[in-house]
Give the backbone structure.
Amino acid sequence: MVAMRRNFADINPSVRSQVEWNDIRSACKTMTKPLFPFIRYTMPSHTPPEVSVENAGKLASTLRLLARIPSVFGVEMCRTIDDLTSLTLYAEIFKLQPKLAARLFDEEIEEYFNNEVLYTEYCLVNDRWITIP
């Protein structure tokens, strides 16, 4: 059933996340291209500014500077670096300041960042399979 589909937009979210997770994890382990395109969640509008890239300070600053040099990283890799930076900020707040995390993050934001973990892995694996014209 899954193999006949081109995307997962119409599949139950819990089933979709399991299939996507297995697809991405298998691709990472076998160093192959994922079977299905990834469906990325939209960042909730009430996401706190503490997890935005602008508030990252020195975190990933060298990579972000390299991204400004033409042809060092592609556009998608630059976005992936920013996504990973934001994800790291979220994880640090969640781990180091649990009371603040409980106040700032609701279930929708947690679900978004759980999906971002998978999306970041997808981008890193998918970057290996981009064909250069």
About this structure: The chain has five helices and no strands. The radius of gyration is 16 Å. The chain has a mean pLDDT of 83. Residues 2-127 form one domain.
